[in-house]
Amino acid sequence: MTLPNKITLSRLVLTPIGLVFLFLNSVPYNILISTVIFAVAMFTDLADGYIARKYGQITNVGKFIDSLADKLIILLYMIFLQSVGIYPMWLVLAFVGREMVMDGWKSYAVSQKIFISARRSGKNKALLQTISLFLALIYLSIGADQFFGVSMRSEIVKEVAYYTMLAAFILSVYGAYSLLKRNPQVFSERKK
Question: Which domain holds residue 27?
Fold first, then answer.
């Protein structure tokens, strides 16, 4: 197994650990610990891709587990943050639905031997989601008096987190439309 794939697998391991800390209210600084774990996990996303490209270690397995790890950490943290009132349910469901539709479409494309690579809009969407989730976790840390002595609850952090995630959603819709438009052959009849 390549080093980038090991780094990606570490993100899969860090995700449930970070989420468990969010529920451990008896642990001091549990939300801040989860925030740090989230930040480390998302840093691994940068590291694995950089190493894979630099050393020519890009593999199909790596592409698959990287995509899976990204979706899991982002969607699971979004679901938790929706449960505490940061994001509305419709936004979380829209992201879940979008990921299901796009993964199904890409799988269908692969079955037709059409391979669709990641686009810049998808990477930008993931960046906006990461920023939004990080801000939302900081907001919770401040509210729980776990953020370096800052004890006031700053509503502006919550609002910025929400609107950043909304921007990510708009970008994801544009990205999905762009992918579909650029790859119409996926839906064309196969010639026998």
Answer: 3-187
- pLDDT bucket at 191, cuts 50 / 70 / 90: very low
Q: Based on the structure, what is the number of domains in the chain?
A: 1
Three-state DSSP at 171 gives helix
Contact by Cβ (8 Å): 83, 76: no
Given the structure tokens 């650990």, which residue do they identify?
Answer: 17
- Percent of the chain, pLDDT > 70? 88
Nearest to 8 by CA among 60, 37, 49: 49
| pLDDT reported for residue 30 | 93
pLDDT, tens digit, for every residue of 7-25? 999 999 999 999 999 999 8
Measured from the Cβ of residue 77, the count of other Cβ atoms closer than 10 Å reads 27
| Angstrom distance (rounded) from CA 89 to CA 83 | 8
Three-state DSSP class for residue 2: coil
In a domain, 54, yes or no: yes
Rounded-to-integer distance, Cα 64 and Cα 24, Å:
31
**Is there a domain that residue 135 lies in?**
yes
The structure's pTM equals: 0.86
Backbone angles phi, psi at 16, to 5 degrees: -65, -30
